[in-house]
Each structure stands twice: as structure tokens, then as C-alpha cells.
Amino acid sequence: MVVSEESSRTVYNSLKGVGVQLVSALPETWLVHLIRLAEEDPDMTLVRVNKEEEAVGISAGAHLAGKTSAMLMQNHGFFASINGIVSFAMLYRIPLLMIISYRGGMGERDTWQTEGGRVTEPVLQALGINYTMLDSRDTVTHRIKEAHVLAESSLRPVALLLTRDLMWED
Amino acid sequence: MGAVAAELYSLGHRPNFFYLEHAMGLASSTGLGLSLSLPNKKVIVLDGDGSMLINLGSLSTLARYRPRNLTIVIFDNESLLSVGGFPTATSTGTDLEGIARDAEVPQTGTARSVGEFADRFQNALNTDDLTVLVTKVEAVGPPGFHMDLALLENRFQFQRHIRSLEER
Q1: Which chain A residues contact residue B38 at CB under 8 A?
Q2: Domains contained in chain B, CATH given
Q3: What is the CATH number of the domain that holds A8?
Q4: Taking CB atoms and an 8 Å limit, are A61 and B34 in contact across chains?
Q5: Which residues of chain B neighbour A59 with C-beta distances below 8 Å?
Q6: Which end of chain B is more exposed for a tag (fewer CB within 10 A), N or C?
Q7: How does DSSP assign chain B, residue by residue?
Q8: Residue B141 has pLDDT above 70, yes or no
Q9: ipTM
Q10: pLDDT tens column, A26-68
């Protein structure tokens, strides 16, 4: 059982394809290759944050400065950044491209991930955040492109949920 | 951020001022995003002690990436003035400059008078390195928090201003 390098590369290349120049991240198992790809890319600014909410401010600063950014985090990190999302990104109409690893769903073996998995989509829905799944390499590029387009046209956060089917190779 | 933003506005608005009226704690993170994205521009964040305390991890992230064009001024009045003046942890001894220094912020200082602030701030502008300048101030706020500038108007004006700098 390993994290899929091929899927990670597809996601990373798709982010590059929509012009992402800055990536903020807080590591988690499924994001290991994505973060490494950002680190090895001389054209990418990688900011490793201590808490995911910092990334909202960093992305807001990048946006105001004319740069496209993406946030890499786990669903629990998304929970930890909600005040920033509401009180900065939504209030100030800042587009955010949030790539969230959707832990705790069907097939999850780690007990500690399971509560967060149950409430991830209800919380996104309660916040009115448009989201879609990244669950197959065939559709990753198209969905990332569409999410980026919507974030920029609506000036709001959008979320892409990285699923087990995409990220994990049994 | 908070009372600092309202006070800055009361001194006269400029198109290169962005007021974070909410999202407590994220002024320094926004400064990091701006300074990394605009390496040839000087970015100055005016923050408060309460806002810095709520996002202490930001000092560590700032030090890690060390944008040399970023200066963070923390006006430390030892209280949460804008919500009623409750004392913060700096009132009982928490030393924000010490935390910044130990996070490996390369240039740090604490100013305790207007003259000392002026000297240290000028020094920060002249020094090409990340600076955190804690400035001890009295817990006296601006006359009011009203700004005759809608939050979104400020946000788009600021973005447009940066774009105009880039096009120059």
C-alpha cells in the first residue's frame, strides 16, 4: 500500500497547467509526493505552514499581488482554517484553490481519521463552498482547470477532494 | 489589523494600504504571501499583540522563508482594545520579540518610545532583511472604527494599485 506517485504527478502537473506559482502545504501522508514535486520545482514557491489557516493569508497575499496559488492540506487542516476562509477569503472575495485530502471515508483504516471523514462534505456544504472529487486520473486535469476557473470568476474558495481511489494504491 | 487598521486609516488613506478588518491573526501571513510574490517591493505589516498571539506559528513560518523585503511592526498595547480592552498574555510577560528571535527571525527589536520606534523602523527599512519590531504603546485606540471606505473597495483598489506598480 503506497501513495500513488502517478496520481500525485497528474495533480501537480494540472496545478502547474492552470498557472499555480505558489503552493502552501502542511504535510500529510497522501500529500507526500505532491509536496516533494513542489519542492523540487525551481519555478514553484513552496510554503510549509505550521497551521493551515496561515495558508489562507498567504494565498490572499499572493492573489492581491497577482499570483495564482493553491493550498495542500488534509480535511482536518481544512477544519483548522475555517475562520480564515470565512473571515478573509469569503469576506474579501479572495479565490482559493484548496486541494484537500479526504481522509476518513470508505476504506479508512486509521481510527483517528474517521470522524473528520464523516463531516467533511457537510461542513463544505454548510459553508457554501463549491467542491468536487478528484477520484480518477482521467478527470483530474479537467476538474482542476474547472475549479480554478470557478474560483477566479466567483472570487471565492473552491475545494477539490483527493480521494482514496486516486491517491492510494493497494 | 483591528484598531491598528482604523488608526492608520484615520491618519489618511493611501492606495497602497490594505486594511484587514477581520480574520484576526492573518495580517502577518498575508504579508508573507505579498512579500514572496513581490520580491522587489517593500512590504510592511502593522499588527497588534492580540493578532500576533492568535497566530504565533506565523513568526516561525516567516523566519523559515525569510522574505528580506518584509517588516512586521507589532504595536503591543497588552490588550484586546477593539473588543473591550481585555489584557493579553503580553501584559503578564510574554515577550513577542523574544519569540520572534527564537523562531530565528534575523532582525528583531523592541521600541519603547516614539524616538526609539522612529530609529528602529528607519533601520528596518534600510536593512535588507526580515524584521520584527515590537513597539510598546499605550492602550488608547482611534476615536472610532468607522472607515468611509468599503472593505471590498479597499481590497480591489489595493490589488489594482499593485498591478499598476508591476506594469511600471
Answers
A1: 65
A2: 2-11+25-167 (3.40.50.970)
A3: 3.40.50.970
A4: yes
A5: 33
A6: C
A7: -HHHHHHHHHT---TT-----SSTT-HHHHHHHHHHH-TTS-EEEEEEHHHHHHTTHHHHHHHHH--TTEEEEEEE-SEEGGGT-EE-GGGGT--HHHHHHHTT-SEEEEE-SHHHHHHHHHHHHHS-S-EEEEEE--S---S----SS-HHHHHHHHHHHHHHHHH-
A8: yes
A9: 0.96
A10: 999 999 999 999 999 999 999 999 999 999 999 999 999 999 9
